[in-house]
Amino acid sequence: MSLEPxxxxxxxxxxxxxxxxxxVGGKGGVGxxxxxxxxxxxxxxxxxxxxxxxxxxAHNLSDAFGTKFGKEARLIPGFENLSAxxxxxxxxxxxxxxxxxxxxxxxxxxxxxxxxxxxxxxIDEALAFAEVMKExxxxxxxxxxxxxxPTGHTLRFLNFPTVLEKALAKLSGLTxxxxxxxxxxxxxxxxxxxxxxxxxxMEGMRGSISEVNKQFKNPDxxxxxxxxxxxxxxLYETERMIQELTSYEIDTHNIVVNQLLLDxxxxxxxxxxxxxMQQKYLSQIEELYEDFHIVKVPQVPSEVRGTEALTKFSDxxxxxxxxx
Amino acid sequence: xxxxxxxxxxxxFIHLFDKYVKTFLVNQGFRVYARFSGSPEFxxxxxxxxxxxxxxxxxxxxxxxxxxxxxxxxxxxxxxxNVKWEKQSKIVSQKSEGVKKLISLTFWIVTRGYRFIVQFKxxxxxxxxxxxxxxxxxxxxxxxxxxxxTGYVSVAVWNFASQKVISTLL
Lengths: 324, 170
Description:
The complex is a heterodimer.
Chain A: H1 11-15, E1 21-25, H2 32-46, E2 50-54, H3 61-65, E3 74-75, E4 82-86, H4 89-103, H5 108-117, H6 123-139, E5 143-147, H7 161-189, H8 196-216, E6 222-229, H9 232-247, E7 252-260, H10 269-288, E8 293-298, H11 307-318
Parallel strand pairs in A: 1-5, 1-6, 2-4, 2-5, 6-7, 7-8
Antiparallel strand pairs in A: 3-4
Helix pairs in contact in A: 2-11, 4-6, 6-8, 7-8
Chain B: H1 2-36, H2 40-61, H3 68-121, E1 126-129, H4 137-143, E2 152-154, H5 155-169
Antiparallel strand pairs in B: 1-2
Subcellular location (chain A): Cytoplasm; Endoplasmic reticulum
Main location (chain A): cytoplasm
Subunit structure (chain A): Homodimer.
């Protein structure tokens, strides 16, 4: 099979107008945030409105653009159709729990039910994510780009939507059966239970989780951009991630290889050695992922921070490197 | 006296067999069955296992650092085979459960079943006599259960006593 290698740019993402969700993921320190910001900038040139979301608790978007972002979507200064927000999946679930605690304090039953419900592994992330998705959907953005946490845990719940659904169904079945009993008992004890609200909430979540799932598995709507550097561990992680994504049926056909030394006439001995190593892994990447767009991004001398630097850098995702 | 020793040895043998040999023989018997039964489940299970092992060997021979592409391809193959193998091994273990039960049952009939037949056939025959005046009549009556003459120890009681002693000591 001798196919022409696919063009090494992210232009295919700009051209695919049906795309709604774009995930950018990879190991920590490979330039995920820089890549997702750059991609967002490029997307904003061809789309009506673009939202950039960071689910990384380390919150790098604020650093990258030099503006503080929060849980609400905010326009990035210097852009008219590009907004950003930063969310912390763990914090939002904590908030939700505290809220329901405040609503009905000194209610031992609801606390127990919550403990039971949140014993399902990964449910906190999944619920938080579903919450975010609900919000994002109501905001009506043309395209949403996720800057995922280094481990890619944001996607972990895609692994067990069915488990989750089953567990939730069981739990809600349980309450409908034992709810009256519990109510009676707590009536006798003089406390006031309304554990229904948390389960009603969960039922709602279940719907949105499965809907989100359906959308994520549709390659017309969703794609995942893998970011890596040309080193063994990064490559290894990327391979694992791609296999995982395949098992979740999430489309991925772009790999961004960052921090490459692309100048063939470099003189410093360290650069020559490093370039040699990078070229070795790069050729392996090209051999292994022949059906991917492999975007080679050169290492830039300075930190990519601020709107201007990012805009300049973002060009490298679309136009392949040419030696100056 | 011979009969007494024979029964004791029989009990000892059954005890030792059940404790040390049976599981091994059942497993061996199952392996022989799996090999010669020609059932497609076992065959594909074995094939998969061999493929899995050879892929693993290949994987170990390829340096992930030097030939990442080759290594990753092998790794994908290994993962795929592993999933298939696990699925197949579930099917096989379900099936093997039945076969193993059958083999166990055969062993049971040959050992304990044989003892039962001996006991049943000789239910009227005494094993040895209890010296007169040693035990009260009601105790003698018990020792002769179910059908031996009073004053003698029956096969059933002797078997029971032997089993108790053997299982306590060994």
